[in-house]
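Suppose a classmate hands you a notebook page containing two proteins, each written out with its sequence and a corresponding row of structure tokens. How would you begin to make sense of it? This section walks through that situation. The first entry is reproduced here exactly as it would appear on such a page.
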Amino acid sequence: MTRTTDGSAGDADYARIGEEYRKYRRPEPAFARAIGKALGDARTVLNVGAGAGSYEPTDRELTAVEPSASMRAQRPDSLTPAIDATAEDLPFADGTFDAAMTTFSVHQWNDLERGLAEMRRVTRGPIVVMTCDPDRIGDSWLAEYAPEVIAVEARRYPSLARIAAALPGDTVTTTRLPIPFTCVDGFSEAYYARPERLLDPGARRANSAWSFVDEVTARRSVAALRSALESGEWDRAHGALRTQPTYDGSLVLLTARPA
């Protein structure tokens, strides 16, 4: 397994793009409630690909795993330090945890099937995965202005069927998560009604898909969005979104429970 200079084991280099991650990617309360409900009455919880600690429940005994040094350094003092390890090689005994979770992480693993098998090996109860459905990523208006970014994003996310197939002994349910107007977790769809936010370089860096297109392509996409906003083209095409309280995008919560 190849790691980047700061230890990142996935496909994104968080030493380069992760410095301000916590500023733009804060836990959205509506999503946190859904995750908490899916975890049920689990007392011990493993968070894989934990990053800066978003969505970690504070009312349970939490163990975090995160291979990126820059992301581990951004975890607030109120959370337990994360262990330097990867999803594919979890340093725990079989059945250690009541439940496990991972958010916005599975699309960055080098070996999805091995990572999920490892999560199931160390987990007695539910495995909760917050991810995006690649079949719906292209529905975003951003595809009109940054098609290369959207194409990269859709390729990176594993299909929901592939995730379910990697947990063959489990009963798997999938629930769509409506994205609220004021969503504070700044993945690209969070700005469905606030397109100006994606003109901010920091907001784009907090969405790793932008790091997979070359600088010329990224500048062209940003220029196209800026021009559409300044001319009123974006509002003529998508202005109704500015007052839409929620958006049914690609975000899903997948829960796998042992049969």
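The notebook's second entry, a different protein, reads as follows.
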Amino acid sequence: MKRKYSSVSSLFAFLIVGSVLLQSCGSEANKPVAEKEKFAIPDTVMKTLRIDTVKTTQLINAITLTGKVGSDEDHVIPVNALVTGNIQDVKVMLGDYVKAGQILATIRSAEMAGYGNDLINAQSNLRVAETNLQKTKDLYKSGLASMTDSLNAEVSVQQAKSELNRVNQVLKINGGSTQGEFVVKAPISGFIVQKSAINNMAIRSDNSVSLFTISDLKDVWIQANVYESNISLIKQGENVDVTTLAYPGKVFKGKIDKVMNVLDPSSKVMKVRVVLPNPDYLLKPEMYASITVSDKENKQCLSVPSQALIFDHSQYYVLVYTSKTDVKITPVQVLNTVGERTFLASGVTDGQQVISSQAILIYNALNS
């Protein structure tokens, strides 16, 4: 009897404890859930935040070409050797800036030594001819020489002067040195963009290889490749934007100066020449460049700054701003991006404001 009473007491106690636990759980479930704290852009961020307006603008399509920077061939001067000899004392290196008339190198030359010797002979012959003329005139006055002798002596002087003038001109063309040296000087101011001259190198005057090549680089050319599918979009005289890996974010302004109306048989591309000023010499020969050619269509559409776009999960978004506590993530459909402007097909309306700086940080904060 006692054992039965004990079992009933234990069951009763278990039911009481279970009831208490159920009531406790029920009371916890019935408590209201705390509301999620509303997002607000901090004041420190607001001070530097850039907010732009959605605008209706003319739609621009653009294609990007690849090319390589080169010298303006109208201002490139090769410096060749005019004499045979051995190069001595090269004074410049590749990439150096030189001024017109600056000495680049000297050449020890037997030809120059011969020109110097010709000068001495021509000067001596002239002195002899002038002395003979004076003697002949004295003899003619004394009746010991004929008029023909006097005239012949005058002709000899004129011939000697002509020969001396010829020798001087040849010497001047070749630098004017009488010490057997040819001095190589820069014909224009500019940069040494090619150099083959080295000390003690033997050269010949009929060698077609230039010792130096100088370019002023005030303007540069870019040879760009145009694929067949884009040829119809290229027009001579059109303005283009040029960017390089060396200066990210910097846009150089140029113009299509020449369209080569033939396709390369191997690469199947057409070449175009872009000319652009280079006053600070930022663009160097052999740099790779991207050339953006824009084509304005007769169509209006919405556009936003390109920095306002966010790409996540295969979708583009912008952050529509109403106030610092009211920022909405809005999906948009992108038509085209041209430089700092992106054209949209849908997602926003004209006049709405979008965040165009620190957009990714705010986007991540809204999603956290």
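A careful reader of the second entry would note: Residues 110-142 form the longest helix (33 residues).
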